[in-house]
Structure formats: C-alpha cells, structure tokens
C-alpha cells in the first residue's frame, strides 16, 4: 500500500470543494450583473443610482473575482502538492521494492 494513498481521496475532495465554491462565486457575480442591468438601463436614476453602480463595478464585483482567483489558486496549489506527494510515494515504493528484492535474493 502506498504511503499517501489513504489521504489522496480526502485531498481530492477538498480540491473539488474549492472548485464548487469558485463556481458558486461565479454564479453570484452573474446574478449581481443580471440584477444590476435594470439599474444600468435607467430603472433607478440619480446620484444614489450612480453611486450604487460605481460601488458594484469598482468594488463588489472585483473583490468577488479576487476571491474566485484565490479559491482556484489555492485549489490548484493543493492539486500540485497532491501530485508531488503521489510522485514521491511512487519513488519510495520503487526504492522499497528494490530493497525488498535484494533481501529476497540474500535470504
């Protein structure tokens, strides 16, 4: 049995969870943009409407996009770490197999 096999499934589930969270954030951004369309098309006018639109465009949506990038970046880095662990595990298995082969020949 591989050394890290027992946790690989759990790590993969966490990576999938990060992906689902990013998808949820992307849907939220889409809903915000869709909900803002009537306001941008003149349903609400005046200084308050302009301030609201500016806040959405300059702060809310960019910050959510940064959150999405951070979530996906962390999930990607976790995936990279998992690949490194799997490769290290394969290397260790190979070495252990070679040592076991030597002992079998001796004994």
Task: Name the beta content range.
Answer: under 5%
Return Rg in Å.
25 Å
Helix/strand order: HH
Summarize the main sheet: none
Describe this structure in words.
Helix content is 93%, strand content 0%. The protein has two helices and no strands. The longest helix has 60 residues, at 47-106. The protein is rod-shaped and about 90 Å long.
Overview in brief:
The protein is mostly helical and 107 residues long. The chain has 2 helices and no strands. The chain is 93% helix and 0% strand.
Give descriptors for this structure.
mainly alpha, Helix Hairpins, 93% helix, 2 helices, 107 residues
Outline the fold blueprint.
Elements: H1 5-43, H2 47-106
